[in-house]
Amino acid sequence: MSRREDIDVRTITETEIPAWIRALNTGFLRSPAVSDEEITNRGSSILLERTLGAFDTDHPHSRLRSTGGTPIVATFRSFPQQLTPVGGTPVPADAITNVSVNPTHRRRGLLTRMMATDLTAAKDRGDVVATLIAAEYPIYGRYGFGQATTATEWTIDVSRSGLDPRWSGPTDGARIDLVDGEEVRELGPDLHERLRRTQPGAVSRDERWWQINTGVLSLSGDPWKEPFYAVYRSATGEVEGLVSYESDDNWGDAKQPLNTAEVNWLITVTPAAERALWRYLCSIDWIAHVKTGWRAPDDLLPHFLPDPRAARITIQADWLWVRILDVVRALEARTYAGSGTLVLDVTDGDGLSAGRYRLEAGPDGATCAPTTTAADLTLDVGELAALWLGDESAVRLTALGRVHEEREGAAVVADALLRTSRRPWCPDIF
Ligand SMILES: CC(C)(COP(=O)(O)OP(=O)(O)OC[C@H]1O[C@@H](n2cnc3c(N)ncnc32)[C@H](O)[C@@H]1OP(=O)(O)O)[C@@H](O)C(=O)NCCC(=O)NCCS
């Protein structure tokens, strides 16, 4: 086993990209083979100064070694992102992705070293938070991340929904049309911008997102299977919703179509568009079930159906994890349900955000500053992240022993300020 000092954690160079992708594929249990297309397409998103590799300088047998290289045994990458807090003023985020450690080098602290390097750089850069989607729940809490949003997937049994099967489109002048990928690339970015700027928990998307999700760019080199896309326009012609979906091919034992429509993504900016697009999906001939993809847990969907029980929760899990790097700016970036003062004693094992902060919160914004006055609540920075987007309850975390009341009733006050009437939602995976 190589010793700690034999493993360098550092940023990679351009020529090391193929080996880095090979290590990433290995860690993610994909075939390690790296195609030229993958190098070009994946490589074009890599910011070398924010892409880390762990290099085993003591690796005994390697073809790489004979060509002067050092085997890469772990990967980590981050990129700039914006995250929308409550109140809709996006903050700069350090989005973390492609985290992997080869199985031969696991549990020797490599992730810990890469994470420390990246988070320190993000804080120095002035990012307010770091974000990620976790492969497994227990990985990131130790680094100060907290579960900030939850994702829910429903499977709708169309025959039980109570919807009128004769429906053939909106009757109020709005319309739904099938479009191709090119039109999605034209219409999608503006629609998504409108959504994500007001949706707590939503993150920015770059042009690549639309290219990858319409088949222009393939990261894996796998053949692209074009999905269906439908756009909703209001009676005044405004684009208010877009859905990408696929169907399987299932004819059951009695030669009856039993297809499932699987939604890749569905974004809307009005409840009318949301209702119409779900209605559309449930009206497609042959479709017996609709899988909704990752939605907010309080999505309106079940209640668009006369029988909401026809929408069964099939997945419910943590989704966006947030690590607060700058408590003052994070708390000042959002608005609050009411007016009030809260003094928070924030602990942080990594020392990045620890301190006692006084928050003067209000519906139009807040001021926050370090203070020496007595604390109302003591909590870890990860618990603050869970509360920050409004999804978690301070009362619940107090009951769990994860938040401590220094003043009786402070958790109720915190909930009255921090919680939101709708739950946050991050439509993206990254
Ligand atoms: C998750 C992963 C990156 C962890 O890397 P690692 O280098 O083994 O992690 P570290 O050695 O730095 O672990 C630090 C601590 O986290 C714990 N830990 C790490 N991964 C864990 C996991 N998946 N579940 C539970 N605990 C985990 C370690 O036990 C260790 O705890 P300790 O300090 O109490 O001993 C690695 O196991 C991996 O590549 N897994 C497969 C791919 C993956 O899931 N990537 C994450 C994508 S979001």
From TrEMBL:
Active-site residue numbers: 140, 430
Membrane-spanning residues: none
Keywords in alphabetical order: Acyltransferase, Transferase
Domain N-acetyltransferase intervals: 7-170
Residues binding acetyl-CoA, per UniProt: 99-101, 107-112
Any Gene Ontology biological process: aminoglycoside antibiotic catabolic process
Keyword Signal recorded: no
Pfam families: Acetyltransf_17, Acetyltransf_9, SCP2_2
GO MF terms, alphabetically ordered: aminoglycoside N-acetyltransferase activity
Transferase is among the record's keywords: yes
PANTHER family for this protein: N-ACETYLTRANSFERASE EIS
NCBIfam families linked to this entry: PRK01346.1-4 (NF002367)
Binding partners and assembly: Homohexamer; trimer of dimers.
Record-stated family: Belongs to the acetyltransferase Eis family.
Protein name, UniProt field: UPF0256 family protein
Lineage: Bacteria, Bacillati, Actinomycetota, Actinomycetes, Kitasatosporales
